[in-house]
Specification:
heterodimer, A: about 0% strand, B: mainly alpha, elongated
Amino acid sequence: MSETTSRLHRKFKVAASLLIIGLLTEAVTLYWSKPTSFLVFIGVGGFLVVSGIVIYLLAIVNE
Amino acid sequence: METHAFAIFVLLTIVLIGLVAIRPSLMTARGGKILAFIAFFIMPIVATVFGASIHLDHSKSTQFCLSCHPMEPYGKSLYVDDPTYIPASHFQNNRIPRNHACFTCHTNYTLFGDLHAKLRGLRHVYVYYFKEIPPKLALYEPYRNRECLHCHANARSFEEKSPHTEMKPQLFSNEVSCLTCHSTIHNVEHLDTVKIWKGAGK
């Protein structure tokens, strides 16, 4: 496996980790009916999901 | 129900993301690339939009509004055993949905009414955590008749009752407030002196 491919796979893994943690955070907040839950949903979950998506997109664009 | 649907969707997304992340060789084929794009881009966006809409829906619930400590007396005022208390009589007689009681009367029935209510809600969260909560809570602007007339306009009980008929133009133009006559609202300062209704599972 070339170094480029290995770097690409590593970026996918980072993106996947961020997306999984972000999605889990979003899911947990929905079972918590408090005003702060929406802030956690957007501030933590949303941020992680967007970061994961951006890393994934950058990885495929640079591929 | 929709929360469970969201959880299932998130689980499915996580499985797909995990599959692609564990076996990146899948992405060498065209089908694998499409699968990765769906798992890493489309599904997380759909999940976030879906989740945000569920959150917005949750935020309309009475339980949600009353989860903030300063709102507790207002929640208690819905159980006052006195029909002259306007919010209490609406709540107890199901004139408004009990699970959306606060939102039904305190949203503006305009195109962006829901959005305004939510933005104010975010400001309330900010004040709750980072500022001093005012000792007496007040509305941002005088209560508009539009919010009452959203339901009462054209209702027989409203139209045929004096002085509504005579004052209709002033009421519809907001010249005279409904609260001029119907002035007993939450009155949280007097909750200790009033009888509380024990119905509705409370």
